[in-house]
Amino acid sequence: MMAFNVSSSPVFTPTAQVAIVDALVEQGWYVGQDVINRDLCKALHDELLHMAEHDALEEAGIGRGNQHHLRKDIRGDAIHWLDRESEAQRYYLNAMGELQQSLNQALFLGLFEYEAHFAHYPAGAFYQRHLDSFRGRANRVISTVGYLNPDWPVGGGGEMVIYHPDAPHKEIARVIPEAGTFACFLSETIPHEVLPTRLPRASIAGWFRRNASLGGVLDPAR
Ligand code: OGA
Ligand code: MN
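Output (structure tokens, whole complex):
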């Protein structure tokens, strides 16, 4: 497996962090192409493909805890939670840690933790329209998706569709799952879905969380 080259450029392009924070403040979502280091995407993609080929992924379900169950009619990906076991994972998670600091400084969100999993969608798989968090209940505040497939072909399907928070059938963006692209949005308000993919599709879905015991209380803006 190829190791990510430590001496190469940073994980995010320098302007990306600022753009992400600004877009979240202004519209509640962000999509940028060519913002994640391509070498890192390749290392992460290689790692995920290796796991997929060796049956090291678990079928993704819906719901948490004992409410967790498989629903292939709702989502068809297989996942592996990032655990810092490779250098590439550590680079990705460290970059998300920096983003977490920027988000906290700008938005007073009190984000305290980041969790993320690799997701492998085999051909034909999809994830129906959903929210990542339910207001007041769960503690996922901001969702992130990093895409890993190089050279995604026209007509390859697998786009992530982002819908309007107040009109959940109104499409506002369609994200091609191309390596280097990064998407980020408010977990409680932005409905989104993954359209059926025609090719194996690789991404990392992650969530910044707030301590559940804070019960959704935001720090007041100064
Ligand atoms: C998710 C999700 C989107 C994607 O895992 O909750 O919406 O493009 N993923 O992989
Ligand atoms: Mn989602």
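Residues 215-222 have pLDDT under 50 and may be disordered.
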